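Morning run. Coffee first, then this:
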Amino acid sequence: WVTFLLQQDYFTDENRVLKKDPQQDYHLEYAMENSTHTILAFSRELHTCDTNDKSITESTVRVIWAYHHKDMGEAGQNYHGSNRGTKSLRLLNPEREEVLSASLPYFDLTNKDVPVPDKDTTYWCQMFKIPIQHEKHHVTKVEPLIQKGHENLVHHILLYQCSSNLNDSVLDYGHECHHPNMPDSFLTCETVIFAWAIGGEGFTYPPHVGLSIGTAADPLFVLMEVHYDNPSYTEGLIDNSGLRLIYTPVLRKYDAGVIEAGLWVSLFHNIPPGMPEFVSEGHCTLECLEEALGAERPAGIQVFAVLLHAHLAGRAIRMRHFHNGEEQKLLAYDDEFDFNFQEFQYLKEERTILP
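And here it is:
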């Protein structure tokens, strides 16, 4: 027998009724079917000039899928029942090519049996000591280690560099961050050296860049801040999540760093009630950049990746770039921001930011 694979361009109206698009913009490239799988490969222009098609940009795309185990009947498609789902993707964010050896050494920074409170939001802080000392190495990849079943509980993880003048006594306990009773040592941890957010995979540095560890100027003590998101106020949760840092003694040309820009987390940051939309704007000013880069990096820095981060009220984010009063091309944007899918966007070309 022969199975005919029909692949056509359809769209749905506001009543979710499937309709054949009079302008067919999907082109079947390849099809295969065996006893377990049906595989279709197709192509489409990014912008089809068809009002029934969604333009594909660098923003997040929600891919909605549904299927029925029987072929389409004469009366039309069969209802998919529970065979359906959705996945957020960034179709134009290229995959990083892995150039890492599987045998590279690593160390883990993980929480130990943290009792997650039965409240909406908790920031938990734990101090760690970097085990690589006395000789420069480069971290080449950072992977999230999220406890199984806690994928929706651990919302994001920040790693801060702390004062090197601390001693090992600060390693003995974790504490809620931004709390009146938190240890004074936590106040010395101000510089973000890595960030991960929900939905993101591991972050691989470009082949010519690494996060420096092991020298006197590098982080010795680091603070890991984990944001727990527990909107259902679940009791009795114990978490052991954290980060894995993969490193190499083979040094790369450039050291990596992080600049945080945008709005500081503050009780004074309010969105007026009832607004259909509202723009919150933060600035990384000329004066700030000159203070941060002027003496140490007068030729500027190269931006190779951006992590756009917001919480549930966030709908779209733009990272704008100005030079000499002129707006440059956007550094990064996401007009379809998904709270549960936050990953680094690698820039196609590195961008220079001057003091």
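The chain has three domains: 2-89, 103-258, 261-354. Good start to the day.
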